[in-house]
Amino acid sequence: MPVLPGSRATWIGTLRALIEELSAHQDRDLSDQESLPQAGGLNRHQLQRLVRAGLLLREGRTFLPSAAALAWCQGGDAALLVEIFHHNVRFVGEVMDALTAGPRTHEQLLDLARESFDLSWETSAPVRDRTTWLTVTGMVDLFDGRVHLTDAGRDVMARIVVGRPEPDDTDTTAQLTPAVGAVAQLIEQLDEAGLRARADGANLYVPGTSANGGTMDALQVLVEAAMPSITEADFRQFVKDTFPKAQTIATARTAKDTLKALGLIQQTSSKTWSATPAAIAWVESGEPLDLARTVHASIAFFGEMLGVLDEAARCTSGTLVEHSTRYLPNRGKPLIRSAVNTRLNLLEVCGLVTRLSQTAYRTTALGRAFKRSVPCLTSDNGPSRAAPAADGADASHRDEALGSTLPPNSLGSDIAAELESSALASATPKRLEKAAVAALAYLGMPGEHVGGNEAVDGRVRFGIGADSRVLAVEAKTAASGRVVNQRLFPLAGHRAKIGAEVTLFIGPGFEPSMLKEADEDPAIAVIETGLLAEVVRRQERTPLTPTQLAPLIDPALRAAQRRDAIRGHWRDQEIRGELEYALVDILNMEAEDPLEEGGWLDLTSVRRELRTRGYRIAEDEVVETLDFLASRRIGVLDRSDQGYRCIAGVHTAGQRIRALGHQWTAAAEIHHRMRTGDDTGQGSKG
User: Fold this and answer.
1) One domain for residues 552 and 464
2) Three-state DSSP class for 539?
3) Which of 252, 474, 590, 601 could form a disulfide with 605 if both were Cys (CB 3.0 to 4.6 A apart)?
4) 3-state helix vs strand vs coil in the chain, percent to 5
5) CATH number, domain at 153?
6) How confident is the model at residue 403, as a pLDDT?
7) How far apart are alpha carbons 224 and 240 in whole angstroms?
8) Closest Cα partner for 419 from 450, 382, 387?
9) Angle separating helix axes 619-630 and 559-592, nearest 10 degrees
């Protein structure tokens, strides 16, 4: 939805003046910023939003008023302007339709947009943009904290047809528009070697907003700035002039590098850049699929992402981060979440995916047709680091777990594999009993296997010192994957014998009525072996503290709630790692910039750069992370009154952080030898 400069009371006048000026200068070439109409101070990016709203048209690089806009301008009928918006922008008439049942708050309208129309808005800002236009046109009124439909709005509702929630289109098909010119050539030349040679696209940033088609608008505006060519200095300045949140050299450079990675611009001399033939073809066609084809031919794990989304029942951006390693033959680690999110934004504005929630996505019918129409790299061609599934084990959780990228012979992987395998081995129940105790010990809950009639299967301790608690372990196998006919009343007696307060009831799955009974017992924590194995695998890559592991053994949580509680802590850990990398990368780029002396950035500038990459992190957490990176143990940042600067690259930072684990392991071995009397003298202090 277009947002015009100035107060909302001036929007109608600004829009009318713009349309009249464009109508009077239809032969004007708007390839240069200086030649833009001055009405209201609009820039090219804002004009593009008016194109999407149905008020302007594009012919090459020239903007013209649409016939509907001219009709509105001549007649001045506010209802006609609202109808133009409704026919071109989602959730305009639908807002008025919702208000026919009574006034609503912006938050209630936001919930409706998310739940009924699959709109992926994180804040109520897009809703407020719409209600602002409806207010200035007299369709709604705002008071008492709610939006009210006016009589004028009811009259308009009688003339328009509103949209309804979009159904799941899994079983439908879609027709693709054919690729044009240079875009078609890109796809025709995309063989297996070309697929493997694509850029990783590991650090992507598109300025502007990602909501309501803003990503596509921004890319189009940036491509046009490079037609026919532009110097690097002018491009940076153009980014800063056009996008208020992109005000540093580092941000502008990242935007330029992103367009290069996406195949939209290319370097034509030591100082100049030009739009690629494919980018020009896309701008001229205005077809989103041509943009998607160009991007797919340029960066890895783009079209391939559609296949991953289509295979999973409810795929999240975190799951896509993990799967990315299988489609990046030139990269030894997963993409960071912001790189995945940029891909998802592009797929969404091209109509190839739809967002189900803030982090969950689904491939559309158009997306499935697109995936079939372009060559894609299969996961077998990429390096897969997933641990092999144990015989008979259900490995569905492994594909989702970050820990599945561990080497197959790691301790955590071995313990998890034995846990999953033994859970189905009903002929040898002691295997699962011992495996469960070993898994809990690996998670920092030391204990012992007990077993036998009228006794617990295991006894473990959670916590340290006076705050520690004894937990009873009861492990049950089931070849079918579902435990049935197990009596729960003896468990209280088993706990009493070892002084335990809680029983950890562990198995591959449970019959519903028995699961309900166990979940309702305040002294039983039901843990499925699939979840326990996932936690073990991820503990080596995303270790959780005892406090963070507490939901695993909390009897107040139902079995179905346990995974979500644990995953929240995993996400926090992953975001912290991504934040550390992003901070080093931002400061490293600043230090490498020949125009920036010293490479210092203050905290405000650092946080601004983070926001351009999609991070919304509290100031205290950013400071804590910067101080960690500047500490003597890491030492990759300098800190002073000027702010922070990078004194080592991201590769060195990674080495320093990885070294902490190796140093800790070596120190533990030395102390173990000293305690056991097996000290050879190495590492001792003289």
Assistant:
1) yes
2) helix
3) 601
4) 55, 10, 35
5) 1.10.10.10
6) 36
7) 15
8) 387
9) 60
Count of domains observed in the chain: 3
- Which of 538, 557, 576 marks a domain boundary? 557
* CA angle, residues 308, 309, 311, in degrees to nearest 5: 65
- What is the CB neighbour count within 10 angstroms for residue 25? 14
Tell me: the pLDDT tens digits for 151-175?
Answer: 999 999 888 877 655 444 444 446 7
Spatial separation of the C-alpha atoms in residues 612 and 243, rounded to whole Å: 11
Here the CATH number for the domain that contains residue 500 is 3.40.91.30
Q: How many CB atoms lie within 10 A of CB 529?
A: 30
Q: Are residues 365 and 238 in the same domain?
A: yes
Residues in the chain: 686
pLDDT in tens, 189-201: 898 889 989 999 9
Residue 677 to residue 686: CA distance in whole angstroms: 17
How many CA atoms, within 13 angstroms, populate the side-chain half-sphere of residue 526?
22
Q: What is the pTM of this model?
A: 0.46
Domain that holds residue 535: 405-557
Distance from C-alpha of 422 to C-alpha of 392, rounded to nearest angstrom: 9
Whole-angstrom distance, CA of residue 435 vs CA of residue 621: 38
CA dist 95 and 113 (Å) reads 9
The CA-based dihedral angle spanning residues 233, 238, 241, 243, taken in that order and rounded to the nearest 10 degrees: -120
Residue 472 inside a domain? The answer is: yes
My answer on whether 107 and 194 are in the same domain is no
Q: Which of 8, 582, 16 is nearest to 338 (CA)?
A: 582
Tell me, what DSSP letter sits at residue 428? -
- Tell whether 263 is covered by a domain: yes
Report yes or no on 659 lying in a domain: no
Cα 536 off chain centre by: 24
What CA–CA distance (Å, rounded) separates 647 from 166? 52
Could you give the C-alpha distances from 600 to 291, 597, 606, 609, 640, in angstroms and in order?
37, 8, 10, 13, 9
C-alpha of 236 from chain center = 27
Instruction: Note whether residue 553 is domain-resident.
Output: yes
Cα 88 from chain centre: 28
Domain end, chosen from 557, 572, 598, is at 557
Calpha distance 426→429 (Å, rounded): 6
CA-nearest of 568, 468, 583, 557 to 505 is 557
Distance in angstroms (rounded) separating the CA atoms of residues 310 and 289? 18
277-296: b (≥16 Cβ within 10 Å) or e:
bbbbbbbebebbbbbbbbbb
Q: Nearest 5°: phi and psi at 128?
A: -65, -35
Q: Which amino acid is at 469?
A: R
* Spatial separation of the C-alpha atoms in residues 624 and 572, rounded to whole Å: 14
Residue range 590-642, pLDDT digits in tens = 887 665 567 888 898 888 888 877 777 889 899 999 999 999 989 989 999 88
Q: How far apart are the C-alpha atoms of 447 and 461, rounded to whole Å?
A: 6
